[in-house]
From TrEMBL:
<dbReference type="InterPro" id="IPR036259">
    <property type="entry name" value="MFS_trans_sf"/>
</dbReference>
<feature type="transmembrane region" description="Helical">
    <location>
        <begin position="163"/>
        <end position="182"/>
    </location>
</feature>
<feature type="transmembrane region" description="Helical">
    <location>
        <begin position="515"/>
        <end position="538"/>
    </location>
</feature>
<dbReference type="GO" id="GO:0016020">
    <property type="term" value="C:membrane"/>
</dbReference>
<feature type="transmembrane region" description="Helical">
    <location>
        <begin position="188"/>
        <end position="208"/>
    </location>
</feature>
<dbReference type="GO" id="GO:0022857">
    <property type="term" value="F:transmembrane transporter activity"/>
</dbReference>
<comment type="similarity">
    <text>Belongs to the major facilitator superfamily. Proton-dependent oligopeptide transporter (POT/PTR) (TC 2.A.17) family.</text>
</comment>
<keyword id="KW-1133">Transmembrane helix</keyword>
<dbReference type="Pfam" id="PF00854">
    <property type="entry name" value="PTR2"/>
</dbReference>
<keyword id="KW-0812">Transmembrane</keyword>
<dbReference type="InterPro" id="IPR000109">
    <property type="entry name" value="POT_fam"/>
</dbReference>
<protein>
    <recommendedName>
        <fullName>Major facilitator superfamily (MFS) profile domain-containing protein</fullName>
    </recommendedName>
</protein>
<keyword id="KW-0472">Membrane</keyword>
<feature type="transmembrane region" description="Helical">
    <location>
        <begin position="472"/>
        <end position="491"/>
    </location>
</feature>
<feature type="transmembrane region" description="Helical">
    <location>
        <begin position="311"/>
        <end position="332"/>
    </location>
</feature>
<feature type="transmembrane region" description="Helical">
    <location>
        <begin position="352"/>
        <end position="372"/>
    </location>
</feature>
Amino acid sequence: MEIGVVENGGVVGGEVVAGKRGKTPQATETFEKVATIGVVANLTVYLVKRFNIGQIEAANITNIFFGTLNFAPLLGAFISDAYLGRFKTLAYGCFASLLVCPYDDQTISLSSFISPAWQQKEMQGFLIIGGGAIRPCSLPFGVDQFDKTDEEGRKGLNSYYNWYYGTSTAALVLSMTVIIYIQNNVSWPIGFGIPTLLMFLAIIMLFLGTNLYVHVQPEGSIFAGIAQVLVASFKKRNLKLPCPHDINQQGLMLYNPPSKGNRVFRLPLTSQFRFLNKGAIVMGDDINVDGSARNSWELCNVQQIEEVKCLIRIVPVCISGVLCFVALAQQFTYIILQTFTMDCHFGTHFEIPAGSVVSISLIALTLFIPIYDRILVPIARRFTGVESGITVLQRQGIGLAISPISMVVAGLVERKRRNSALSNGGISPMSVLWLAPQLVLMGIAEALNAVGQIEFYNKQFPENMQTLAGSLFFCTIAGANYLSTALANIMRKVTTRDGHSSWLTDNINLGKLDYYFYFIALMGVLNLIYFLICSHFYQYKVMSLHSEESIKVPTKEEEATEIDIDTDAPSK
């Protein structure tokens, strides 16, 4: 079965070739994450041990840096869609990440003639630029290589989402174990140099497949299109929609010219958020002789309007992802701080580095994904008829349910650790492996919710917003990092009222970190309820092939069971 995607006027590749093409951008982000996490995974430990920064302040700095790193993909998505395209943006991002290399006890850019303070800022800048370019483009560029009009291609794509996140997480495990061990016990420059070498290999792999890729050309800024729909609808807010009770007939009377550019699918007109439909009402001289809109800020087509509707539907679900990652963000901050007062020995001679403890969660995630993809999904598919076993919203919901459970377990373990530490002069004889149960639960929650988010965004966003879909996932992580910082600061102020000691202190033995974990668990429960409400009212995207003359709009009952291209609805 041929891919059927046109590249510079020709049909490119076949189904098998597509799978091979999809692996190269996946490898690119895998090595990028080794490079980035290899530098910043030990950041909390580095700030506390090297710069004697207070533990709470170090946790806040780590959260803010990770937040900035994960917000950068939003800008990268804009540049990719509007100007460069995904491949060029990926390439520039790889070179930016490569410019981080080791020097003495610091990680700096190749410009080693400047002062150490500026070297640190320049290092962070290159990491943010590189991550901002690679992360939003890597997954959509890999998805471009698959045939989404074919059943086998869609099944392969479902697995691709799982293995994409699985291999990326395996890279994190490498960073959190081997590289951190080298940094702590061998040499900081060597520990930072290995990620640089891997980034160089990623660039070679990316360019080796240049002639095989399907290249989707940029179509201009999607943000301008979103603004045009909102403005046009507002300007025509006083007009009446034609055939208000027959959405199919209404669609025939609104402006809906043939799609142009790289789009393979069309979105039918829907009645949800119908006030936006007014932006496609044709008035007088709104249309030029060639059929184009005279002024895009006064007349939009049905496709533009439905794309904005897709975005509006997704945003409430996206918010629930932010709160889920607040729990997962604790792995890189307070859980690492717990290890400072625990027995980190594994056996007689080996001591687990504090920054490597998080790898337990990542290992659990890496092991769970193939079990889920190869065992649980086929079993679930027999009962549900859904290609992916369960819908992406159901997958996210299960992850959201496990997340607060992990925080309750974390609180129970912390209470035991604190009591043990206070009884033994500040250092608990408890093994650091007591943290394993909560970390395993966090890993499983992330495997379900995070991969579910990635798949959800890439399937439910319109075709021309795929790069934005890739960036939105990282924005949820960024939002969680910033929210974690704000939450910690607020909690310190609130809990110190009336002379009480704060829940969060630089000496965690004197605080109430378990109460903080319980509070996050409570937020997780409320977030799960919010998510269930959002998912109940969510309408999955319905599409048809661009070549089809007629477009069937399912009724509300049919939408629950309709199997449409690129959706998770169960087959009839």
